[in-house]
């Protein structure tokens, strides 16, 4: 509102004086909220007086009937008005001031304290509060006497507040951006009821042929996979399963024995209910749960109950590991540059004060932090320190824990199965005792064994040290296990350039030590060779050695536990190896590595491993290529397991309309076999299509090549999703994120195409086939969904061009683009006598919804423009002196886009 509050009683005038202000009086800055009439008029009067005074000097001999005044207040009465206050160029808000008849300035004591208190430390706040006693307005000079630099800029009509370093409260500078939900007024609310189902239908064909004495019959069948999630309030219900055909699409892994028999039919894979408390980072699950674990604990899937506190799942954008930091003081306005390991992370302009650097984006290991401060005189200084980081650490006072109980489960031939006689329970607790010290306790038990453990993880200047231990007792006896790890990265040791890393690990398990919840791998039908040890030693050191080359030296020795053997799938004998690996870029698009070593581990690559026969020299190489930013190629060979492989991947496009293709070739010299797998996929607005082929070959040997085809399988798969949110239903591509959104147009633009995303990265499109589905929103992390619409009516107000989200787990959104409030109106406002309503601000609101308003402005001719209006009768209230002047604007029901209102005159208050 444009108003004047005088120190004495005001006299209302029937016609506001401000309506005749010429155009040059509009000097208020557009970036700030509308100022009062005096704020607009006073600097203009000063400017006009100064200009005319100058002209009088240059035009000698010219006399005026009355001298031109340069005073702010020529009314003879005190004037109250609101002006902005700035701290080093940062606007803090508006506060009332009083301009006395003698032009002296007084400031509202209460408003000043409330506005600038957060910028001051406790001592300065107390000193400020003592100024002026209980007087509502205090002379500006009184603040200067108390040591506060507060000045009034007559030309700009604003207060400037300069805080010294010893007055300013210390401030935190966070570099990681790790924050919870943004307090945004435009944050879209998630739907109360939402859900989706992903469907993947395929036709699978197995080609009939004869090779190596094996017969493969031709077969064709269909297949339908699904996974779904429904969120009702704060509860999420998840399910997954498959309707399998006669063809088994799963390929038996290399160096594994697949002993199950495939059978067609419906197979349930997972069902559970999830309830999150994100503010406490706690998740509760009932059904097929996936528990967390620590130290020596096993973590099989369970049919039961799980409750866990996990920042990784419920606060993925936050770092609860200690991220280091430091403090620095600046005494003059300065440009500050924060560098970590030589890389600039942030440039910022700061006013005098004490600053704490927090949440540094550190890499694992030692980090060099350098803060460069350049003040306004050009003087430069550095504040430097080292900080260590590891994701396994927890900041002091932070914790994570998990409790689970139920029946262990596993998948056999894609169907979920359970062990009803092996009830088990598990729990652990990790706590940050200090920023560099974490303690943990754990307990786990089933019907046969009980295991308890403890451990500590600490950060010393020399690296990260972890010590853990556990003891078990049960039907198979009692035993203990102890582990010790030491690692440090990015340190300066033997090499002058730094960037070195080293890791040492040792683990001991007594013969009768056992963990709970162990599942016999024979039950799953996919059996890998097994090997048990009582002592495992491991070490690796790497460092840059010049010529863009990095060298690493690794060694390992594992002592076998022979008492655990009883199957041909178990390996026997100690195993060991020592390797040296050199890696470096070869060209701009190609890098490679070469490994030389001695090892006895090659026997582990066979399905019937036995005791190793002796050491052998090992040679391996690998090449990595990136011919362009969309293509990756890899190739390698290693004599350790007599295996070579080549793989390539390429993608074309972004968002919908994207293509990708991949090829993987693997050859095993020890059994003269090879496999070739290829895939090509297209990802569209409503579905994705993939063509997949798997081939097996026998007789593929470098020394004796006699190629014979083995199993050949081809699959054509189409994937889509059906999603709903608060009554809106849409079909889109499969939902891959932890949340989704349905985007649809308002009825006023129902025939228009709405695009989500832009440029060459269109994420979804709402068109004649229905709303768009945004498939990849993150959970518990901020995200923005940009939108646009084609061929809008001229003047149509689309509103916000993006939606901000902070989605809950598996949450859905129903987002409407456009609205009934999409009309843009323009016209002219005149007083009753025909004079323009010039250079004023005001509001417009529907006659029946005064709480929904938009801001309008007029120029010197009284012309106005307003966006975000809807058909109906609107009241325009212009901020004239005294009471506001009202106008009526009638927008017809068929109005779309731009509406010409013509000339409007004042009306009586409705």
Structure at a glance:
By secondary structure, the protein is mainly beta. It contains six helices and 58 strands. Among the domains are: 79-162, no CATH class; 186-235 and 642-818, Sandwich (Immunoglobulin-like), CATH 2.60.40.2610; 325-388, Outer membrane usher protein (Immunoglobulin-like, Sandwich), CATH 2.60.40; 477-511 and 529-624; 823-904, Carboxypeptidase-like, regulatory domain (Immunoglobulin-like).
Give the helix proportion (percent range): under 10%
Major β-sheet profile: 24 strands, antiparallel, barrel
Measured between the Cα atoms of the first and last residue, the distance is: 19 Å
What's the Cα radius of gyration?
Answer: 37 Å
Question: What is the molecular shape?
Answer: globular
* CATH architectural name of the domain at 186-235 and 642-818: Sandwich
What is the CATH class of the domain at 186-235 and 642-818? Mainly Beta
Structural class: mainly beta
CATH homologous superfamily (4th level) name of the domain at 186-235 and 642-818: Outer membrane usher protein FimD, plug domain
Region (Disordered): 1-21
GO cellular component, one term: cell outer membrane
Protein name: Fimbrial biogenesis outer membrane usher protein
GO molecular function, one term: fimbrial usher porin activity
